[in-house]
Design a protein that fits this description.
The structure holds two protein chains of two kinds. By secondary structure, chain A is of the alpha/beta class. Chain A has a single domain, classed as Rossmann fold (3-Layer(aba) Sandwich), CATH 3.40.50. Chain A is built from six helices and 14 strands. In chain A, a hairpin with a 4-residue loop joins β3 (19-20) and β4 (25-26). By secondary structure, chain B is of the alpha/beta class. Chain B folds into four domains: 28-145, Butyryl-Coa Dehydrogenase, subunit A, domain 1, CATH 1.10.540.10; 148-254, Butyryl-CoA Dehydrogenase, subunit A, domain 2 (Beta Barrel); 257-410, Butyryl-CoA Dehydrogenase, subunit A, domain 3 (Up-down Bundle), CATH 1.20.140.10; 430-592, Butyryl-CoA Dehydrogenase, subunit A, domain 3, CATH 1.20.140.10. Chain B has 20 helices and twelve strands. Chain B has helices at residues 31-48, 52-57, 63-73, 92-102, 107-119, 121-126, 129-141, 255-273, 275-291, 303-339, 344-354, 356-381, 391-399, 409-426, 432-442, 458-482, 490-520, 526-554, 557-570, 578-592; strands at 3-4, 17-18, 146-149, 165-168, 174-185, 192-199, 206-211, 217-219, 233-244, 248-249, 293-294, 297-298. The longest helix of chain B is centred in the middle third of the chain and has 37 residues, at 303-339. Classes of the chains: A alpha/beta, B alpha/beta. The A-B interface holds A 16, 30, 69, 72-73, 76, 181, 183-187, 189-190, 192-193 and B 31-32, 35-36, 39, 42-43, 46, 73-76, 78-79, 88, 90, 592-593, 596. Chain A: It comes from Rhodonellum psychrophilum GCM71 = DSM 17998. Chain A: Belongs to the ETF beta-subunit/FixA family.
Chain lengths: 245, 598
């Protein structure tokens, strides 16, 4: 079986987020980039499946050359080869088009990715790829087993769990606890540099949306303590100050 | 002074000027090395930090061995072991980097250091091919844990005076070990013991590889310690322990040499091994001082706190600079010896031995910076720093051992000066000639030429060169006046060591900042430049005090006057506004929210 894992190259979760150029560009200065945490789980599950099923595992990213270390880390974790589509990931549809093209050209049967990226949190790419390729796309998947050509999955839904079965080929947007998060071992890191790594040009140039500007959430206001016996005051504050009632 | 390139010998930093491009700096680690460091950091963050209380409680005897095995699976236990023996065969400086990151693992960093350093390296460097093939793969993968049994109740710093005996059995097939060893890290779960003992009435120790399964090994309960409580430390007793003769390590009476050479490596790695802890503590102090409010504002807005935060970073920056500079010098020497045809293991030993002075400096500087940083960390936390519920209390206790093990800092100070003088006597390091020149300079008219300070660090380098003259003046005079008695004048040896350490640290900090400016431009290296400047200013003060003490102790009359005048001339530097620079550094770190310089 051929597995494709799509990873994002995103700022570390502890990064300080700042914008430049009149709030239209994200300021990468001093920011450490990582594999998207949800994608990391997808990759971890793929590595397990690779060992279990003797599958091949390709990892891909749509990004510029600064994504290379992130892809090499995925190779260190256990992917066999890496593909980078050499383009700034303009928006979800643009990325989905690239993935669909790569997936179609190489005939991957199982396409895993995170339920969403943690930079733009669109959560749309898996659905779009499904639509473009005419494959089932399921998200968020928290358990995934492959039995022959059937994939058994479970996902959390409001108030319970849903069990889903689908035939290969398919796409899954993953999240924990689908697999145990993997730290690359030293040997994996050393072998990453010798694994195949290809850079390809994008198939379409444009996306269908553009960022007008970014805005940081308002700074957290101080906490107000209200005496436990003074419910009226609490209600007044929630109504008049917080305006949530 | 002559500017040298790459071919520097150990201790020569005192008489030669090093160019910035000839040192390695932390910022130059490759993507692969950084990935390894990150993997190691992830291991510490996920496997150790969340369980640090449980580890230190020692209630679950399986916990540390389990974590140890996991470190083995990740390949962290075989970093220095060649691939043919199941390790990673990584470079010397990579092994320093991994030791650095593991330094944030509290007790486990001792477990790690004892196994990968003193536990494994004796076999790697002195073992026969059979011994290497038999034991290294098990040690490199964590299948077996190792410990190192050198210290005895009456043989600590004076290690060669150990009483443990090895007696050849009647059939000549075994050595029978009898004796008692003390403060043995990893003893509780070790499968393999490197044991030092004396055969008959030998003057020197002999080393043996002892498997636990040989029998005749018993232990006391775990020692109750001030810190690193989760690291197994026990007394080990050998009662007729039968060791096959083929398990003698290297030659008879070569044990002391093994112990000394392995400790050289342990020392430089301990220097790096404090760094993970130092950075974590500094970052925690930055965070806490931001969150903690008094008088209506964050305490990080107070100058007294900013000065502490900045000073923690400045010293850390210097330790990082000197450790990786020394590490690369060692690595380069190893590579050049191998290129000349020397065997791998021998080249590694010789490479480290060449820089034994720098190894001792790294150990002393690193452990004292660690102690300084945890002390200030507690202070920034205030009352909460004294509470066992906050991380500073543990850090403070854990740190203290670093000034004691791998040779106390006093032994290391004696050693670095003693070794330099020995090398000077042998003509390996030419300090006497420059010392004579300095001596002549003392009685000549000072130059009134003004220094061109238009290039970055020109003034600082001039100060450094003069500080080196302080060492040559005081050290040269001490060697001549005291001669062999210098070994008994331990206070003078301590003073001279302090001068050496501060010169090496200040120079390393300046060269690191200079090299970084070359890589990234001056604009983005303002903090590093400030740190190097403040460090040098402090170093000059410390050197002044140490030199003055030494001069007062062994000179008098006119000679003393001349030397004091020389000292004044050589420690003269423009006043540095350390307060403003420290504030600038602290503000930058507060903005970043952590120690942001590596």
């Amino acid at each position: 079986m051929k597995i494709l894992v799509c990873i994002t190259h995103v700022p570390d979760t502890t990064s300080k987020i700042q914008f430049t150029e009149n709030n239209t560009q994200f300021d990468k200065n001093g920011v450490q980039f990582i594999i998207g945490p949800y994608d990391d789980y997808a990759l971890a599950r793929a590595v397990e499946l690779k060992e279990q099923l003797g599958a091949s595992l390709t990892v891909m990213n749509v990004g510029e050359s600064d994504s290379d270390p992130t892809l090499r880390k995925a190779l260190a974790i256990g992917a066999d080869d890496a593909i980078r589509v050499n383009a700034f990931p303009k928006d979800s549809l643009f990325v989905a088009n690239q993935i669909a093209h790569i997936a179609k050209s190489n005939g991957y049967e199982l396409i895993l990715m995170g339920r969403e990226s943690i930079d733009f949190n669109g959560g749309m790419v898996h659905g779009m790829v499904g639509e473009l390729l005419g494959m089932p796309s399921i998200s968020p998947v928290m358990k995934l087993e492959v039995e022959g050509d059937t994939v058994k999955m479970s996902r959390e839904i409001e108030g319970g769990k849903e069990y889903v079965e689908a035939k290969l080929p398919l796409i899954a947007g993953c999240q924990e606890p689908i697999a145990e998060w993997k730290i690359p071992n030293m040997r994996g890191i050393m072998s990453a540099r010798t694994k195949p790594f290809s850079v390809v040009e994008p198939v379409v140039e444009e996306g269908n949306s553009r960022v007008i500007s970014y805005e940081l959430p308002p700074a957290k206001a101080g906490v107000k303590l209200v005496d436990k016996d003074n419910v009226e005051e609490l209600v007044r504050l929630l109504k008049n100050e917080a305006k949530v009632l | 002074m002559e500017t040298i390139k790459k071919s520097i010998n150990g201790g020569e930093f005192l008489i030669k000027e090093t160019a910035a491009e000839d040192i390695f700096i932390f910022e130059e680690f490759s993507e692969e090395q950084k990935m390894m460091a990150q993997a190691c950091q992830d291991f510490v963050d996920t496997e150790i930090t969340p369980r640090i209380e449980e580890i230190d409680s020692m209630k679950n005897p399986d916990l540390v061995p389990q974590i140890f095995k996991k470190a083995g699976e990740l390949g962290l236990l075989g970093i220095s072991v060649p691939e043919v023996f199941g390790g990673m065969g990584m470079s010397f400086n990579t092994s320093m980097l991994i030791a650095d990151i593991i330094g944030a693992a509290g007790s486990f960093s001792t477990t790690y250091g004892a196994h990968t350093g003193i536990g494994t390296l004796p076999i790697l460097y002195y073992g026969t091919e059979d011994q290497k093939n038999k034991y290294l793969p098990k040690l490199a993968t964590g299948q077996w844990a190792a410990c190192y049994c050198l210290t005895e109740p009456d043989a600590g710093s004076d290690a060669n005076s150990g009483k443990t005996k090895a007696t050849l059995s009647a059939d000549g097939k075994h050595y029978v070990l009898n004796g008692q060893k003390m403060w043995i890290s990893n003893a509780g779960f070790a499968d393999l013991f490197i044991v030092f003992a004396k055969i008959e009435d030998d003057k020197n120790l002999t080393a043996f590889i002892v498997e636990k399964s040989f029998g005749g090994i018993t232990m006391n309960e775990e020692e109750k310690k001030m810190g690193i409580k989760g690291s197994s430390t026990r007394q080990v007793f050998f009662n007729d322990c039968q060791v096959p003769v083929e398990n003698m390590l290297s030659d008879r009476q070569n044990g002391f040499k093994i112990a000394v050479n392995i400790l050289n490596i342990g020392r430089v790695k301990l220097g790096a091994g404090v760094l993970g802890g130092v950075r974590t503590v500094t970052s925690l102090a930055i965070k806490y001082s931001t969150e903690r409010k008094q008088f209506g504002v964050s305490i990080n807005t107070f100058g007294a706190i900013k000065a502490k935060l900045a000073e923690m970073a400045i010293r850390t920056f210097a330790t990082e600079a000197l450790c990786y500079r020394a590490g690369q010098d060692i690595e380069d020497r190893i590579n050049s010896l191998i290129a000349e045809g020397m065997q791998d293991s021998e080249a590694k030993l010789k490479g480290v031995e060449q820089f034994a002075i720098e190894c001792a400096i790294a150990k002393v500087h690193g452990s004292e910076v660690l102690d300084y940083v945890v002390d200030q960390g507690v202070q920034v936390y205030g009352g909460m720093g004294y509470s066992a519920d906050a991380p500073m209390e543990r850090a403070y206790r854990d740190a203290r051992i670093s000034r004691i093990y791998e040779g106390t800092n006093e032994i290391n100070r004696m050693l670095m000066v003693g070794m330099l003088l020995k090398r000077a006597m042998k003509g390996e390091v030419n300090i006497f000639e420059p010392a004579m020149a300095v001596s002549k300079e003392l009685t000549s008219v000072p130059s009134f030429e003004s220094l061109d300070t238009s290039t970055l660090f020109a003034a600082e380098k001039d100060v450094l060169n003069k500080l080196k003259k302080v060492f040559l003046m005081v050290g040269g005079k001490a060697a001549m006046s005291l001669q062999d008695r210098i070994e008994d004048e331990q206070e003078v040896m301590m003073n001279l060591a302090d001068v050496m350490i501060e010169i090496y640290a200040a120079e390393s900090a300046i060269l690191r900042a200079e090299k970084l400016v070359g890589l990234r431009g001056e604009e983005s290296c303002q903090q590093q430049i400030a740190m190097a400047k403040v460090y040098l200013s402090e170093a000059a003060e410390k050197i002044n005090i140490a030199a003055k003490e030494a001069i007062a102790s062994f000179t008098s009359g006119d000679e003393q006057k001349v030397m004091l005048m020389g000292l004044k001339r050589f420690t003269k530097m423009d006043l540095v506004d350390t307060k403003s620079l420290r504030r600038q550094i602290a503000d930058f770190m507060i903005e970043k929210g952590h120690y942001p310089f590596s």
